[in-house]
């Protein structure tokens, strides 16, 4: 068993190091992104927040990342609270949400709306548990993704695992169709 995730900033640091498995390509600072990113791939990005419950800014064109970052700074957002990730292929969303292994069994809070997770869950969310939760996860997560989810639930007891599963493999780990967005205590 590994250390619990105690804060959002602790999570982000560990997320960027790849501790939680497949994730969106991510940069700690906009300057890092600008220094190493090859422009011209047409990828969209989102500015994410290290503050729990903080805003996220989606679908920023690659040539607008620097402008969006400095615009946020001018509006009062602190630079140390921001980090940057590639936008996932949300149009290919099969299922997304959060899963926990509670004392009474598996619990899944999810949506199949093809939007970024916060927006999708706000539009339509469902809850299932037990065998129904298990069958939904096994239906949509590829075998490698499902095995990694099991690992995360085993290694981080008492934590919720946020994930998005797509109709193709995507992220930092080849051969996985599920990105793990967050691990947090529940």
Number of domains: 2
Characterize the main sheet: 5 strands, antiparallel
Number of strands: 9
Distance between the termini: 17 Å
Unreliable stretches (pLDDT < 50, length at least 5) are none
The quaternary organization reads as single chain
Strand arrangement within the widest β-sheet reads 7-6-5-8-9
- SSE succession: HEHEEHEEEHEHHEE
* Fraction in helix: 25-40%
Radius of gyration: 16 Å
Q: What's the average pLDDT?
A: 92
- Structural class, judged by helices and strands? alpha+beta
Distinct helical segment count = 6
Gross geometry? globular
Strand fraction equals: 25-35%
Characterization of this structure:
With 186 residues, the protein is an alpha+beta fold. Helix content is 31%, strand content 30%. It has helices at residues 8-16, 30-36, 65-74, 117-123, 130-140, 143-155, and strands spanning 26-27, 44-49, 57-61, 82-86, 93-102, 105-111, 126-129, 159-166, 178-185. The strands form 2 sheets. It has a 5-stranded antiparallel beta sheet with strand order 7-6-5-8-9. A 4-stranded antiparallel beta sheet has the order 1-4-2-3. A hairpin with a 7-residue loop joins strand 2 and strand 3 (57-61). The longest helix is centred in the last third of the chain and has 13 residues, at 143-155. The two termini are 17 Å apart. 32% of the residues are buried.
């Amino acid at each position: 068993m590994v250390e619990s995730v105690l804060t959002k900033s602790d999570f982000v640091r560990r997320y960027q190091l790849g501790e939680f498995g497949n994730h969106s390509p991510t940069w700690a600072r906009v300057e890092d992104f600008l220094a190493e990113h090859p422009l011209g791939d047409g990828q969209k990005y989102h500015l994410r927040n290290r503050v729990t419950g903080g805003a996220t800014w989606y679908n920023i064109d690659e040539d607008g990342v620097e402008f969006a970052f400095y615009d946020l700074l001018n509006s009062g957002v602190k630079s140390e609270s921001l980090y940057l990730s590639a936008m996932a292929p949300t149009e290919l969303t099969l299922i997304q949400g959060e899963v926990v292994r509670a004392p009474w069994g598996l619990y899944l809070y999810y949506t199949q709306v093809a939007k970024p997770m916060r927006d999708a869950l706000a539009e339509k969310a469902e809850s299932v548990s037990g065998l129904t939760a298990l069958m939904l996860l096994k239906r949509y997560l590829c075998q490698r993704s499902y095995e990694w989810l099991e690992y995360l639930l085993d290694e981080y007891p008492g934590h919720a695992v946020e994930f998005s599963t797509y109709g193709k493999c995507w992220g930092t780990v080849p051969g996985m169709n599920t990105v793990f967005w967050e691990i947090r205590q529940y």
